[in-house]
Amino acid sequence: MPFSDSLLEDELPAQQSVVDYKKSQKQRKVLAHLYVNGTCTLANLATLLHSSVPSVTSLVDELIQTEWVASMGPAIGNNGRRPVLFGLNTKRNFVAVIDVSIHDTKILFMDTQRHIVFRDDIDLQLNNHSSFLSSLVSYFNTALLKAGLSEDELIAVGISMPGLIDARRARNLTYKQLNQTEESLARWFSAETNKPVYLINDTKATVLGESRFGGAQGKKQVLSINIDWGIGLGIIVNGEVFHGASGFAGELGHIQVDPDGELCHCGKIGCLNTCTSAAALEQRVQRDILSGQVSKLAIFKDSVDQIGITELIDAAHQGDSYAIDILHEAGYLLGKGLAIAINLFNPEIIIIDGVLTSAANFILSTIEQAISKYCLSDFRNDMTIELTQLNGSAKWLGTHTYVMENIFANH
Amino acid sequence: MPFSDSLLEDELPAQQSVVDYKKSQKQRKVLAHLYVNGTCTLANLATLLHSSVPSVTSLVDELIQTEWVASMGPAIGNNGRRPVLFGLNTKRNFVAVIDVSIHDTKILFMDTQRHIVFRDDIDLQLNNHSSFLSSLVSYFNTALLKAGLSEDELIAVGISMPGLIDARRARNLTYKQLNQTEESLARWFSAETNKPVYLINDTKATVLGESRFGGAQGKKQVLSINIDWGIGLGIIVNGEVFHGASGFAGELGHIQVDPDGELCHCGKIGCLNTCTSAAALEQRVQRDILSGQVSKLAIFKDSVDQIGITELIDAAHQGDSYAIDILHEAGYLLGKGLAIAINLFNPEIIIIDGVLTSAANFILSTIEQAISKYCLSDFRNDMTIELTQLNGSAKWLGTHTYVMENIFANH
DNA sequence: CAATGTTAGTTCTGAAATTAATTAACGTTA
DNA sequence: TAACGTTAATTAATTTCAGAACTAACATTG
């Protein structure tokens, strides 16, 4: 299946018989289906697998033996004998989800049904120091102790972080120092924790979460837009996360929108990121406030570095017209960038995610305005724009999904 | 499988038994594999299908009965008994490929191994008149007679044409008049010819051809660039043509590159198409020559409308510095547009196709220049830019493939 | 509360497919 | 040219699986 298994690189699947192969394929399908659907009857699985009920019965029996699956009791129904529901065993196979951002880091432990059984928000910012990873490992071990999870209850670790993530080599190319020596980031972390480690870009994790459990459920062609340090575009193509050849797909933030613009940290000039990323907005607002801009945000005049994107949005919600103008403008630029992506991807739905969600009132209208202006009208007809409904958990759900789908793929 | 079957819209697969379902799945796989690989031994097919040799033998026997497959004699080999090779029967199941462009129309009949058994270039330009289609039908019927093919030897028709092709409804939204009344274009043509008709955008056909039989063979993430009336971007994602939600994906030509640019026929301002499409280049050269530009092309001064993209490229090949400058510039703009697509798609290969191929000497360098300037450098490392090797047949191969893959999908 | 209808799940049987064994077809070599 | 090595394909055997028949579990109804 995909890539980014941290431990095995090109290990060939052991030469197995045809019947074993088919069985593992089917078991994998069962697990993946139970993972997204929660519970399922034998009859459901039989039609899903194009197999007979007796076959599925023995298949599921085996999965119960290995403690992957558990019976969830009978379903409620109107008439007739009630079917027994099966689901993933939630008492085993916990996964650690580590959400790394430039603001802080969160360590979560989730069960197979994606319930958070433990959460720790730690004051560790993503930076380019090689010490970052070793701190993370010690925080991780502490969390494991606090959560009271034993070694063998945890099966894998998923890490989501911003930056260009080289999928095959599981390295972060934006934060190069994180790759200890020549080893891949994930491989190193894996050696430290003795667990398989899966690395995924934060935007791709978010869109994966939306695709499986959010507003994009069942949709085949999806874009999700996310604003953070940079502008992230998450892409679902034919129902699957689109990574591109090296894992870099969706770098909307580094397309040029202003030839006379500012220098971007990537070295190019006038990238979309220099106009409308969280970092760019903060800088701009801080500059404006310092130079006497009239605004509710002026209360921060003596400590402008306290102004973040959240403060900006809060001010807008309080009716501050300067803040509203800034957000309107950001929305328009975002829409302009989105319009390009729409022309290329022809999505059926666009999901607004991340911190932007709370600014929806102020940016949605100008986003739509820009899209109408810069997109061919035929593209608009079958397309909707929606806000995330997942309350900020899309990224975690997506990271968990990414880990589980990889685990299922290796039977 | 995909969409755009002209005859059946949402017809559900007949409720069939599990064993029948599996058999048709396997037969479909066999056909698809033989289609791209030409010939194949039973052992090959067995590993492909994850089945035993005896099973595959009976499967293939059945396909021979239905005259889809034929034995191709023994393979040559070093030692041991020679395996029998099987391939698609080339004496049956011919497909008509109709290549419609704004310059002319070509009608081809191809056998299952993609050999052209008949070709007719007809003087019919794609235009927005509703009479176009009826002319095409009569040309088509004439060609059928000339080729000496009987009704039942032809199984389907594939039409490639420029424009926005609404996949689900098989309509051409750019050339709206072609859609007779409310019926879809393909459906109407299908009724006239009594064959299933598949409609595909020309750029998508081209990239499909490159993906299956050209330089992009085996590549998963591919972009192909094509210049014609507009700029076409063909996209292969995870090894399959990317259509988008409605079939419009890849409209690179209508992203804005110059806010102060010319009005595009789409209604927007400064689209890439207004700078560097064949139409735009022709217009510009014609204007320049008329107003006294020094160039070999000045021989056309009294009949500038004779200057097409081919004449421009010819002049460049003769060393005309004006023509070379124009092409250099076009390459640079094209590269700038491509850079955006690269940032979003992170392809492993970009293929230069269509009329551009012959201008490669003049545009490749500036394309690369622009890409280096506007792309993150990490994107360049795993990416190559290549010229098509298919001598202009990519589009036909792709159209044929599109038809065949759809036919195989409906067993 | 027995009879009946409905759906689920198990048991059983015949069909189908896998695996193993055998035969076939070829080249090489003694 | 006959024996042997090698690979293919067929036949035989054993296993697996689908489909049907049957049993189980529930609600409703007379």
Task: Report what the structure shows.
Two copies of one chain form a homodimer. Chain A is an alpha/beta fold. Chain A has three domains: 18-88, Winged helix-like DNA-binding domain superfamily/Winged helix DNA-binding domain (Arc Repressor Mutant, subunit A), CATH 1.10.10; 94-205 and 395-409, 2-Layer Sandwich (Nucleotidyltransferase, domain 5); 215-389, ATPase, nucleotide binding domain (Nucleotidyltransferase, domain 5, 2-Layer Sandwich). Chain A has 13 helices and 15 strands. Chain A has helices at 18-37, 42-49, 53-65, 131-147, 185-193, 202-213, 272-276, 278-290, 309-317, 321-345, 360-374, 377-381, 394-409; strands spanning 39-40, 69-74, 84-88, 94-100, 105-110, 116-122, 154-161, 165-166, 171-172, 197-201, 222-227, 231-237, 240-241, 349-354, 384-387. In chain A, the strands form four sheets. Chain A has a five-stranded mixed beta sheet, sandwiched between helices. Chain A has a five-stranded mixed beta sheet with strand order 13-12-11-14-15, sandwiched between helices. In chain A, strand 11 and strand 12 form a beta hairpin. In chain A, helix 6 (202-213) packs across helix 13 (394-409). The radius of gyration of chain A is 23 Å and the shape is globular. Chain A starts with 17 loop residues before the first helix and ends with a helix. In chain A, 47% of the residues are buried. Mean pLDDT of chain A is 91; it is low at 1-14. Chains A and B meet through helix 1, strand 12, helix 10 and helix 12 of A and helix 1, strand 12, helix 10 and helix 12 of B. Chain B binds a DNA duplex (30 and 30 nucleotides) through helix 3.
